[in-house]
Amino acid sequence: MSDFAPPMHTGWNDTLKAKAARIRLIALDVDGIMSDGRLYFSAAGDELKAFNILDGLGLKQLMKAGITVAVITGRRSPLTEKRITDLGIPHLMQGREDKKVALQELVAGMDIAPDQIAYMGDDLPDLPALTFAGLGISVPNGYWLVRQQADYCTQAPGGHGAVREACDLILWAQNRLDATLAPYLGKPS
């Protein structure tokens, strides 16, 4: 039994927990998932994005627990590349409109089955990858059809801790959340 359980875990049913328990890789979209989906441009044409620090630590905790993290995005952005590099995420696929194909290419040499993949997306280009993966996750600010097809829709909106919520779900389902949180409470992990 876990000492720590996120407040939303009361809505995490046995089917969702079983799916999350099998995850060995999570692939994420960027705009609308890691960011709030808005794009900001300066007068000089520079692009700006905001990433949530909670999400970053959650992804680092997943990687430390042995879960592979990948980012698949339809856009190309130096800001995304910087964020992914800063987090130490090993797999970044930019400019990929067919995200299911990109996801299949990514796992082809990894010996990871579809039911061991979580995919998190918010819009129609994400839908084929989301339904291919064993665990499809969306956000409340995502497109209605994507939310409807997802196995789980986070309580937090994209860009506001939704990725961290998905990370906590996976760690909790795999009985790794306690060990992840213990050092922050001064307890041995």
- What share of residues are in beta strands? 5-15%
Major sheet: order of its strands? 5-4-1-6-7-8
What is the CA-CA span between the terminal residues? 15 Å
Order of helices and strands: HEEEHEHEHEHEHEHH
- Output the number of helix runs: 8
Low-pLDDT residue intervals, each spanning 5 or more residues: none
Question: How many individual β-strands?
Answer: 8
Keywords: Hydrolase, Lipopolysaccharide biosynthesis, Magnesium, Metal-binding
EC number: 3.1.3.45
Function: Catalyzes the hydrolysis of 3-deoxy-D-manno-octulosonate 8-phosphate (KDO 8-P) to 3-deoxy-D-manno-octulosonate (KDO) and inorganic phosphate.
Cofactor: Mg(2+)
Keywords:
189 residues; alpha/beta; six-stranded parallel beta sheet; two-stranded antiparallel sheet; 8 helices; 8 strands; lipopolysaccharide biosynthesis
Brief synopsis:
With 189 residues, the chain is of the alpha/beta class.
Describe the structure.
By secondary structure, the protein is of the alpha/beta class. It is built from eight helices and eight strands; from the N terminus they run αβββαβαβαβαβαβαα. The protein has helices at residues 14-21, 53-64, 78-87, 99-107, 127-132, 144-149, 162-173, 177-181; strands spanning 25-28, 40-41, 47-48, 68-72, 91-93, 117-120, 135-138, 152-153. The strands form two sheets. A six-stranded parallel β-sheet has the order 5-4-1-6-7-8. Strands 2-3 form a two-stranded antiparallel ribbon. Strand 4 (68-72), helix 3 and strand 5 (91-93) form a beta-alpha-beta unit. Helix 1 packs across helix 7 and helix 2 (53-64) runs parallel beside helix 7 (162-173). The protein starts with 13 loop residues before the first helix and ends in an 8-residue tail after the last helix.
